[in-house]
Amino acid sequence: MTFRLMVDKRALDFLNSLDARDRRVIKAKPRILRENPYPGSDEDKEKLHTNKKRESYRLHIARTFTVIYNINSDEKPVYITHIMPIEKAHRRYGRI
């Protein structure tokens, strides 16, 4: 089962504002979401506990950045809603 990755414009704008090294690191990691976006023991993916109706997940990247994403299992897109520094993600969503 292969999922399609989609990226929100704000997340893409943040990504493009980073230096080339950080962009390269961030672009490489979310590719694992195409094969299996669900949390498990194989990667650093976890479900976020929020009060929103849509389930959100997070993926830590290089202990520096966090990708927040949603999954639509019917249509198979993984929608990356935010890319942010890990400290900002911890303030917004708490430490898991």
TrEMBL record:
<dbReference type="InterPro" id="IPR035093">
    <property type="entry name" value="RelE/ParE_toxin_dom_sf"/>
</dbReference>
<protein>
    <recommendedName>
        <fullName>Plasmid stabilization system</fullName>
    </recommendedName>
</protein>
<dbReference type="InterPro" id="IPR052747">
    <property type="entry name" value="TA_system_RelE_toxin"/>
</dbReference>
